[in-house]
Amino acid sequence: MAATTPSTAAAARVQAEAPASAPVWLLLGSKQGDNSQILALAAALGLPFKRIQLRFNFLHWLLPAMLGRRLWSVKNRADLYHAPPRLVISSGLRSVPAARWVQAQSRGQSKLVHIGRPWGPFRWFDLVVTTPQYALPTLSNVHHNLLPILADERTPVALSPALQAQLADLPRPWTVAVLGGHSRPLRFTVEAARTLAAQLNQSSGSVLLVGSPRTPPACIEVMRPLLQVPHAIYPFSTGENPYPALRAEADRFLITGDSVQMAAELLVCGKPLQVFPLPEVPDVLVRLTRAWRDAAVQYRWLRPAFEWMRHRGLLSSLRDIGLFHRQLDAAGVYSHPDLARALRTAEKKVTVHHVQQLLRGAGEPAAVPFSEQLAAPVASAPQPALHQP
Fold first, then answer.
1. 165 in the same domain as 108
2. Distance between CA atoms of 163 and 272, rounded to whole angstroms?
3. How many domains does the chain have?
4. What is the largest CA-CA distance in the chain?
5. Tally of CB atoms within 10 A around 187
6. Can you give the pTM of this predicted structure?
7. How does pLDDT run along the chain (389 residues), one tens digit per residue?
8. Range of the domain at 185
9. CATH number of 189's domain
10. How far apart, in whole angstroms, are the C-alpha atoms of residue 358 and residue 307?
11. 189 with 249, same domain?
C-alpha cells in the first residue's frame, strides 16, 4: 500500500501543541534488547533526547507497508504531537509507521535511524544499523556491526547479604547459566532443558541458574531434580534481581542461543562464554518465507517477486542467530574475550560517526577502515573456538 502524507489537520495539531522539544526522539517499544540499543546509541551521541514509550492497539498486527505513514496502530499519539526533532531512533516492526509519520510532519527534515532490520524498503530510512543475524545487503544507508550497540562499562554490582548467604557454601568456579526462551523460530523445549541439565552436570565448581521473563517455567522445573552439581536456581521474579550481581561475580557463562543482546552483554564482561543452541520449530510464517526463498534460489524468474515482497515487509524477514555466533567466532571474539570490549568501543564510535554525518547533511558517511576500528585486526585474531553441543 502506498504511503500517504498525514492530513493537514493532524499537522496543524502538531504545530499548535508543540513546545520546544529535544533534538533526538527515541521511540521505545516492548523489547528490552531493542530499547537497550536505542538508549546506548543516544547516550553515545551526547545530544539531549526525549524518550517516547510507544503503546499499541490491535492494529499493530498490520505490516508497516499497510499502515504507511500513519499512527493508526499507536495508542499514545499525543506523545508525538510536538515539533518534529532532527533525529528519530527506532527499532522493531511496530515503531516503523510512527517513525515515518514523524518524518512526514517535518517535511522530510527529521532523519530516521532504525536499528535491526527495516521491515520494509531500505529507502524508508536514512540509516539502518544492523548485525549479522539479519544478513542484510551492503547498501549506502545500511551500516553493519558485529555486535549490537552496547552501553559503556557498568559499575559492578555487589552481592546482597541475602545472596552472599545463599552462595557461601557453593564451590568455585561459578558457571552462571542464563536462560532465555522462545524466539521464533527457536523454542526452549522441555527436551532441550533436559539436555542442558546433563551438560551443566559436567561443569566443575557450581552452577547458578538464572531465568528470564521469557523462560518457560516448565523448563526450570524439569531441570531442578536433574542438576547433580552444587547449584542455586533463580527463576525470574518481580522481586530482587540477582542477575547484575551474579554477572559481576561469575567465573564463566553459559547462555541459551536465542538472544543476541544477552550474548553481547556477557561477551564484553571478558569471561569465557559458551552458547547452548535451542532447537528450531518453524511456524507457518517462517516456513512460508523459507519456501519462497528456496524457490527464488532454484528458479531465477521468482527472485524479483521474492525481493519485492521481502523489501516491503510482506514476507517475514529471516533471522539466523547461528550466523551471528559464527561470525563472532570467526572474528576470534569467543576465544579472545578482551576483543569483545575493543569491538564494542570501536563499532559504537563508527556508528556515532555515521549518525553525526547524517545530522550534518554530509550525505553518505565516509568509510572507516576496519583495521582502525580495532587495536588488533580481525586478520590476526585467534582461530575460532566456539564449541556448541
1. no
2. 23
3. 2
4. 68
5. 18
6. 0.82
7. 334 344 444 444 333 333 346 899 999 999 989 999 999 999 999 999 999 999 999 999 898 989 999 999 999 999 999 999 999 999 999 999 999 999 999 999 999 999 999 998 899 999 999 999 998 888 999 999 999 999 987 788 888 898 999 999 999 999 999 999 998 889 999 999 999 999 999 999 999 999 999 999 999 999 999 999 999 999 998 677 899 999 999 999 999 999 999 999 999 999 999 999 999 888 777 777 778 778 888 888 888 887 777 766 666 567 888 899 999 999 999 888 789 999 999 999 999 999 999 999 855 444 443 434 443 333 333 333 333 32
8. 161-276
9. 3.40.50.2000
10. 27
11. yes
Is 71 a domain residue? yes
User: What's the rounded Cα separation, in Å, for the pair 333 and 25?
Assistant: 33
Between helices 32-45 and 337-360, what is the axis angle to 10°?
Answer: 60
For residues 336 and 338, what is the distance between their CA atoms, to the nearest angstrom?
A: 6
Q: Are residues 107 and 189 in the same domain?
A: no
One domain for residues 226 and 165: yes
In this structure, the answer to whether residues 166 and 104 fall within a common structural domain is: no
166 with 257, same domain? yes
Q: Is 196 exposed, middle or buried (0-12, 13-18, 19+ CB in 10 A)?
A: buried
